[in-house]
């Protein structure tokens, strides 16, 4: 009898121990689930706040040192659609920027996470034989360079904001888009062929180059750059409120023809992008569109963004450049507020072409050869770059971007005008 009671007691003890172990396991699971749920809510709140804080218009209405750099979101489904023509970079890191140059963006480095079927063999050949990857040899005629939205370097950078409010952590951001021939993707508007001697001679009669041709100029830039459109001013205007202006010579009738030539070519380039990803070109110059909309109530400011040509509204391009034999010595990033777009138009010298370097990692560059009628747009803040080589007689390319200095001068001008308006 005593033995039975002892056995029964042992069974009850074992059951009690098993029950307590089960309760502890359940408690651990519940705690883990609560912890994970709390983490998800915290991450969700962080990204929600990030989206609110980094909306583009808020940059203009607040006093702050940082300047916005809008990045275009590429949904995950587009990546799988164009996977064979994509390079995906990961492990993004940015070295410290030059503290004495507020427009400097430091140097970015990556590793390659994915290289598409139509690109992989060309990139290997380029690195093996130390030569440029030729755009015209890429199947389908285009290349996308991406990195994932969830890169820490992007998420923790207060200057970076995204073009879409609704994005997932599986989406990508566009670092660069390239096309080998714009006519493959768009029925382009006809533009005159550039005469490498006579057109340049005429351009020089009314425009001065903004490149000074010494090693201290813009990361060792050489060549000639003739600019049109809006720029930052070095002093305030007569009203002492506005500190942006237009490039000298823009109002001359002969220069308007050159200006329209630049905008027409860049418009054709942008429409070719839309032939690959619908609507992507409208996001390349988001800040320029905001400049226009925010200045409508101030005539002294809005006059710089009003043009008779509808191409200005279609592209949101507010400045453009004609670059002659332009090269850059140093790889660099810049704190621009838009993507940089480059186009190599058709020229009388049919052998003219340019080569650009884009830094992947230490000692490894994506070196690309761009023929005539090709072009590309890239994030000058997130991928280090330089124009490495030009070939041909007075080889020419067109470019557009908006830098930090113009942004700062515009914001200060808007702030002064708004202040006067409220006082009245």
Average residue pLDDT: 88
- The CATH architecture classification of the domain at 192-423 is Sandwich
- Uncertain segments of ≥5 residues (pLDDT<50)? none
Strand content: 15-25%
What is the class of the domain at 192-423 in the CATH system? Answer: Mainly Beta
Report on the biggest sheet: 11 strands, mixed
Compute the CA-based radius of gyration: 27 Å
Distance between the termini: 102 Å
The portion of residues assigned to helices is 25-40%
**Broad structural category:** alpha+beta
How would you explain this protein's 3D organization?
- The strands form three sheets. Strands 2, 3, 4, 6, 8, 9, 10, 11, 12, 15 and 17 form an eleven-stranded mixed beta sheet that branches.
- Strand 13 and strand 14 (364-370) form a beta hairpin.
- The protein has a domain at 192-423: Sandwich (Jelly Rolls), CATH 2.60.120.
- It has helices spanning 2-53, 56-61, 76-81, 117-128, 152-155, 198-204, 253-274, 286-294, 299-302, 311-315, 404-423, and strands spanning 69-71, 73-74, 86-95, 107-115, 133-134, 142-148, 160-162, 172-179, 222-232, 244-246, 319-327, 340-344, 353-361, 364-370, 374-378, 385-391, 396-400.
- It has 424 residues and is of the alpha+beta class.
- The mean pLDDT is 88.
Spell out the blueprint of helices and strands.
Blueprint: H1 2-53, H2 56-61, E1 69-71, E2 73-74, H3 76-81, E3 86-95, E4 107-115, H4 117-128, E5 133-134, E6 142-148, H5 152-155, E7 160-162, E8 172-179, H6 198-204, E9 222-232, E10 244-246, H7 253-274, H8 286-294, H9 299-302, H10 311-315, E11 319-327, E12 340-344, E13 353-361, E14 364-370, E15 374-378, E16 385-391, E17 396-400, H11 404-423
């Amino acid at each position: 009898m005593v033995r039975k009671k002892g056995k029964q007691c042992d069974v009850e003890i074992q059951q009690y121990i098993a029950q307590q172990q089960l309760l502890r396991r359940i408690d651990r699971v519940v705690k883990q689930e609560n912890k994970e749920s709390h983490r998800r809510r915290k991450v969700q709140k962080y990204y929600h706040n990030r989206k609110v804080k980094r909306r583009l218009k808020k940059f203009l209405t607040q006093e702050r040192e940082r300047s916005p750099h809008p990045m275009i979101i590429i949904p995950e489904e587009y990546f799988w659609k164009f996977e064979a023509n994509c390079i995906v970079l990961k492990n993004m890191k940015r070295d410290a920027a030059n503290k004495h140059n507020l427009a400097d963006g430091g140097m970015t480095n990556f590793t390659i996470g994915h290289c598409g079927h139509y690109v992989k063999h060309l990139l290997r050949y380029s690195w093996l034989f130390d030569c440029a990857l030729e755009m015209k040899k890429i199947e389908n005629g285009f290349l996308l360079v991406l990195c994932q939205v969830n890169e820490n370097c992007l998420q923790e950078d207060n200057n970076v904001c995204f073009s879409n409010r609704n994005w997932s952590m599986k989406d990508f951001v566009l670092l660069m888009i390239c096309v080998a021939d714009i006519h493959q993707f768009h029925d382009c508007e006809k533009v005159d062929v550039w005469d490498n001697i006579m057109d340049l001679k005429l351009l020089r009669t009314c425009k001065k180059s903004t490149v000074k041709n010494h090693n201290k100029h813009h990361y060792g830039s050489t060549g000639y750059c003739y600019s049109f459109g809006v720029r930052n001013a070095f002093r305030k205007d007569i009203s002492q409120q506005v500190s942006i202006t237009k490039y000298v010579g823009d109002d001359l009738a002969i220069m308007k023809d050159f200006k329209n030539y630049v905008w027409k070519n860049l418009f054709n380039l942008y429409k070719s992008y839309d032939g690959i990803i619908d609507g992507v070109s409208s996001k390349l110059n988001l800040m320029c569109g905001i400049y226009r909309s925010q200045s409508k109530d101030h005539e002294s400011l809005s006059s710089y963004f009003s043009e008779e040509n509808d191409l200005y509204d279609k592209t949101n391009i507010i400045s453009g450049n004609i670059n002659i034999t332009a090269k850059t010595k140093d790889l660099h990033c810049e704190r621009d507020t838009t993507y940089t777009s480059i186009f190599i138009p058709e020229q009388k010298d049919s052998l003219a072409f340019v080569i650009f370097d884009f830094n992947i990692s230490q000692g490894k560059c994506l070196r690309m050869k761009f023929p005539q009628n090709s072009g590309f747009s890239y994030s000058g803040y997130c991928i280090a770059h330089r124009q490495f080589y030009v070939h041909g007689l007075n080889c020419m390319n067109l470019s557009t971007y908006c830098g930090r200095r113009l942004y700062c001068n515009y914001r200060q001008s808007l702030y002064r005008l708004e202040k006067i308006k409220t006082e009245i």
